[in-house]
Amino acid sequence: MSVAQTTKTYQDNIDDAVNVLVSKLDEAIDDLENGRVLTEEELWAEIDAV
Question: pLDDT tens digits, residue range 22-36?
């Protein structure tokens, strides 16, 4: 594999990771805007149940 191919593969991996990150952030913002979040008390109750 040439250096150019390795660099391209590395850049593709970075692009994929950034796309996943942005997608998850967009999803979280949408959840927050639509009230689909846990309160602190609900979060601790869920953690304690585990």
Answer: 999 999 999 999 999
